[in-house]
Amino acid sequence: MGGPPHRERQTTLWDTREVPGAGVPASFARDPARLLTLVDALDVIVWEADARTWSFVFVSKRAEDILGYPLAQWLSEPDFWVSHLDPEDRDQAVALCQAATREGRDHALEYRMVAADGRRVWIHELVRVERDPAGEPSRLYGVMLDITDRKRAEEALRETYDRLRKADDQRRQLLIRLVEAQEEERRRVAVDIHDDTLQTLAAVAMRLGTLRRGLRDPEQESALARLEQTVQLAMARLRHLLFDLRPPPLDRGDLAGALAEHLARLREDAGVDGELEDRLGRALPPEVLVTAYRIAREALANWGATPGPARSG
Fold first, then answer.
1. Percent residues over pLDDT 90 in the chain
2. How far is the CA of 306 from the CAs of 45, 200, 259, 266, in angstroms?
3. Which end is more exposed in the chain, N or C (fewer Cβ atoms within 10 Å of the end residue's Cβ)?
4. Which of 235, 231, 190, 191 shows the shortest CA–CA distance to 212?
5. Are the C-beta atoms of residues 116 and 16 closer than 8 Å to each other?
6. Cα separation of the two ends of the chain
7. Are the C-beta atoms of residues 111 and 8 closer than 8 Å to each other?
8. Cross-strand pairs, 58
């Protein structure tokens, strides 16, 4: 079992002596054995101890079921409680109980005890401190609850949460690597188009222009002009494709710049008008930057398809 071994908090156990008209029922007063039977039937350890020595003077029979030690051992060993605390919890549990007893405070704490068969049993204990006429702590009355199952459930819940958190972290890392791989491929294709295809088309356009200017036949000149126009249109579309693949501002970490250029293209191509405000105020990690751009670009495309003025912030 894991987690912090102890918690202490102020508490007040119910005392019939403090309630007018309340007390032990008459049937129990006439038959103490009946009261003892009731106490022994409870699924908790009820106990009484000397506040000065911490020696038990009464322990309910449920103690044998929960921890496995005979009642005689609880009552005969002066340091039974301390000696059977889990070594990892002993110092803190003893210190908490000593301080509360010395101050006369009712208290509650959690710790582990070592059962007779070696098991670690989690205990939640409520303790009431009784003072003598001089105001000094004289008696301790307590209840021990076995909360081992609850602690195991809490530990299982923590382990499940940790597994889910690790799985989520792995998913995030996988997503980051996927985005990086996609963007790297986009960057490679964009470089190939710029350095190869666009340069080749530019050379073709220049050659066509030279040829057209040397012609004297109007029909041939018109045909070459149309061919040159087609090449220029292809180059313009490739430049648009280059921007779609990897806007240069993204390489500088400039999300607003990339979106502003896309907005300018929408204004030019679709005749829409709008204004972009940069409220980010901080740099984004590369994978977040790219994802944000793709999402915002899609939103701008949808906005551009809607007629009428708009404002995107």
1. 40
2. 73, 38, 18, 12
3. C
4. 231
5. no
6. 52
7. no
8. 48
- Rounded to whole angstroms, the Cα distance separating 272 from 86 reads 74
Look over the chain and give the mean of its residue pLDDT values, rounded to a whole number: 80
Given a contact cutoff of 8 angstroms between Cβ atoms, the answer to whether 11 and 108 are in contact is yes
Most confident of 89-98, 187-196, 254-263, 299-308: 89-98
Residue 204 reports pLDDT greater than 80: yes
Hey, CA dihedral for 137, 139, 140, 141, is it positive or negative?
A: negative
Tokens of 236: 């313009």
Q: What's the rounded Cα separation, in Å, for the pair 174 and 166?
A: 12
The token duo for 216 is 């004297």
Residue 254 to residues 161, 247, 257, Cα–Cα distance (Å) = 37, 10, 5
Q: Which of 102, 106, 108, 125 is nearest to 52 (CA)?
A: 102
Q: What is the DSSP letter of 303?
A: H
- Please give the Cα distance from 81 to 99 (Å, whole number): 16
Cα 298-303-307 angle, rounded to 5 deg: 150
Helix (H), strand (E), coil (C) string for 235-283: HHHHHHHHHHHCCHHHHCCCHHHHHHHHHHHHHHHHCCCCCECCCCCCC
Residue 32 pLDDT class (50, 70, 90 cuts)? low
Q: What is 69-93 written as a DSSP string?
A: --HHHHHH-TTHHHHTB-HHHHHHH
Q: How is residue 16 annotated by DSSP? A: G
Residues 6+ positions from 297 with CB-CB distance below 8 Å: 259, 262
3-state secondary structure of 124: strand
pLDDT per residue as tens digits for the range 113-172: 999 999 999 999 999 999 999 999 999 999 999 999 999 999 999 999 999 999 988 888
Report the b/e string of 125-135 with b at 16+ CB within 10 A.
Answer: bbbbbeeeeee
Q: What is the pTM of this model?
A: 0.56
